[in-house]
Amino acid sequence: xxxxxxxxxxxxxxxxxxxxxxxxxxxxxxxxxxxxxxxxxxxxxxxxxxxxxxxxxxxxxxxxxxxxxxxxxxxxxxxxxxxxxxxxxxxxxxxxxxxxxxxxxxxxxxxxxxxxxxxxxxxxxxxxxxxxxxxxxxxxxxxxxxxxxxxxxxxxxxxxxxxxxxxxxxxxxxxxxxxxxxxxxxxxxxxxxxxxxxxxxxxxxxxxxxxxxxxxxxxxxxxxxxxxxxxxxxxxxxxxxxxxxxxxxxxxxxxxxxxxxxxxxxxxxxxxxxxxxxxxxxxxxxxxxxxxxxxxxxxxxxxxxxxxxxxxxxxxxxx
Length: 319
Prior knowledge:
The chain is mainly alpha-helical and 319 residues long. The chain has a domain of 91 residues: Zincin-like (2-Layer Sandwich). The protein has twelve helices and four strands, in the order αααβαβββαααααααα. A hairpin with a 7-residue loop joins strand 3 and strand 4. The longest helix is centred in the C-terminal third of the chain and has 39 residues.
């Protein structure tokens, strides 16, 4: 989904988004076909269960889209600030003003989270309802405005590319599948399931729903995490191209990642619900490969630094 700003469009992002959405669509079609097959075998009750999950999941998805900014700020314990509130607020507003002028985009609301966790995030269903937030820990560790600007340019790229909308749509199928797993679990636990009329040895409807939903959820989850990791690489690239200073973003990324490792594990776990929004994940994964990275919301530090080196080379060739 191309940005209507001066943030550089990312064809790779568009291709990967399209491919991921197409694969999710195939999974959805297969899911519906399986549900129809279950309904044919077990009657209308399974269709009613799925319809209930779709309606409930749709409500969750719409709510998370329209209230993502409020949910994220509340989770982070952040407050919106004006330029006159404090020197930190004035600094943050000044950098956001400059980035908005560079990117030709509406200014988001600005917030600060009073925590030592060095991080930042931006969210909102569109540019007119967006908020960008930095922590006190981030601003203390990045006294260089170029480094802080690189981080905020990364975050505002998510707004420009409508990433919250895209990820909400991509997550819809996983939400439905997760609900069906819970419904099926409690249905089997308390109801024992309903067997086919013509075959008393048939598997209970609840168990079949659970197995199908678990498979759909697992596939959807992996596709969404893949999209999320490339989304972060794209934000790095777009932010670095906008500011023209990939080295500043690299320096900030190294400082943030290194210092996150010194935060108490208890605090990191508390911050994990915001991992998908954060500039760097609260629980950082080292190394560029391995099973753990497949489940991560962010690419490895090594991969991000390597991609920023490519951006620097691109800028050097253009000079």
